[in-house]
Amino acid sequence: MAGQAASAPNADLLDKLASGLFLLGSLNVALFTFNLVPLLPLDGGHLASVVYEAAKRAAFRLRKKTWPGPVDTARLAPLSQAVFLALFLMGLIVMIADFANPVALL
Prior knowledge:
Largest sheet: none
Shape: elongated
Oligomer: single chain
Order of helices and strands: HHHH
Number of strands: 0
Distance between the termini: 10 Å
Strand content: under 5%
Helix content: 55-70%
């Protein structure tokens, strides 16, 4: 899409630069949003475990029980690896599909 926007014959340099910066900015926002999905290898998964720990600590404090300590997050490593593999395969499939049938601007 960036190549088609840059090679548009009826656009001047400022329009081409604006299109490129808009495309780069939208990619940045999309990656930021996707990174907050609560899956373990992503930042959202780490945030979810922090929220879980805080909720567990607050529940033990309200019940006036002794806190058993933090959860061993290393036990979630196989799940994290499986999610990483699924995301990698999904990305590979999307790249192959993009080469087979690229998206075109109208």
